[in-house]
């Protein structure tokens, strides 16, 4: 069965392929999904990633007042929106295709794993994890600790969250993309996580951050996390 419940054949994507890049290359094709190891599935809004800044992105940009690093920037719509608002912004993505797409639309973006050394470490005013990117690496505590290390002492992390309810989930996920009619390409498994508006408080505290604000914008949920006074 495919993620929508229709019977199809599946084929594996080679382990060296980037599953998200496979989806990014086909923004006009419907049916890209992120399939989680616990059986949960979420549609990947690839068209939105390639489009202009939507209301939720505008709400995030409004909470940025200084140099911002967009982690897992994809095709760069947030990075571009920040720059157009007069904010110094750099996108970071592990996908070479995503970085090329971001640069093509005018964003400053670098091809790098966010856990590798990055420019201006300890001096960013904001780090942003949009579009479920708090799942990167499958360990939100480690990821938020990494974000904290990128920030100046007054900095914040802006993170997109799951709606209230599911808490924290950690495991593996795979990207499923239509290859041709009746055939779904299933990418390699990678570590991933989900974090909701309730569990974020405990996770943030363990990362040395405090939840300053939880807000809803464009039908989606976000948190603003500040560096805790009791840094561990």
Describe the protein in words.
With 232 residues, the chain is α/β, with parallel strands linked by helices. The protein has one domain: Vaccinia Virus protein VP39 (Rossmann fold, 3-Layer(aba) Sandwich), CATH 3.40.50.150. 23% of the residues lie in helices and 34% in strands. The protein is built from seven helices and 13 strands. It has helices at 19-24, 46-50, 55-61, 77-84, 96-104, 140-150, 200-206, and strands spanning 9-12, 33-36, 41-43, 68-71, 89-93, 109-111, 124-129, 151-161, 168-180, 183-186, 190-195, 209-217, 220-227. The strands form two sheets. It has a seven-stranded mixed β-sheet, with helices on both faces. Strands 1, 2, 3, 9, 10 and 11 form a six-stranded mixed β-sheet that branches. It is globular. It starts with 8 loop residues before the first strand and ends in a 5-residue tail after the last strand. 41% of the residues are buried. Residues 6-17 have low confidence and may be disordered.
Main attributes of the structure:
232 residues, alpha/beta, Rossmann fold, seven-stranded mixed sheet, six-stranded mixed sheet, 7 helices, 13 strands, 23% helix, globular
Computed structural class: alpha/beta
Tell me the CATH architecture. Answer: 3-Layer(aba) Sandwich
Relative helix content: 10-25%
Q: Which CATH first-tier class would you pick?
A: Alpha Beta
Radius of gyration: 17 Å
The CATH homologous superfamily is named Vaccinia Virus protein VP39
Tell me the strand percentage band: 25-35%
Q: Describe the sheet with the most strands.
A: 7 strands, mixed
Shape: globular
**Count of helical regions:** 7
Distance between the termini: 46 Å
């Amino acid at each position: 069965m495919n993620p929508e419940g229709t019977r199809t054949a599946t084929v594996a994507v080679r382990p060296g392929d980037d599953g998200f890049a496979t989806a990014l290359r086909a923004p006009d094709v419907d049916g890209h999904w992120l399939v989680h190891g616990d059986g949960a599935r979420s549609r990947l809004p690839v068209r939105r990633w390639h489009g202009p800044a939507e209301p939720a992105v505008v709400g995030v940009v409004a909470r940025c007042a200084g140099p911002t690093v967009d982690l897992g920037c994809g095709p760069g719509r947030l990075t571009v929106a920040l720059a157009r608002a007069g904010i110094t912004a750099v996108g970071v993505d592990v996908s070479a295709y995503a970085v090329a797409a971001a640069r093509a639309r005018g964003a400053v973006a670098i091809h790098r794993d966010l856990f590798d050394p990055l420019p201006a470490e300890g001096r960013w005013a904001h780090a942003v994890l949009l579009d479920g990117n708090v799942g990167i690496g499958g360990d939100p505590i480690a990821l938020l600790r990494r974000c904290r290390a990128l920030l100046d002492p007054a900095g914040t992390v802006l993170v997109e969250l799951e709606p209230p309810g599911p808490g924290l989930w950690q495991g593996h996920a795979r990207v499923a993309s239509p290859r041709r009619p009746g055939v779904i390409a299933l990418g390699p498994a990678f570590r991933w996580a989900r974090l909701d508006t309730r569990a974020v408080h405990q996770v943030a505290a363990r990362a040395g951050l405090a939840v300053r604000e939880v807000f809803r914008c464009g039908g989606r949920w976000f948190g603003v996390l500040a560096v805790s006074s009791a840094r561990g």
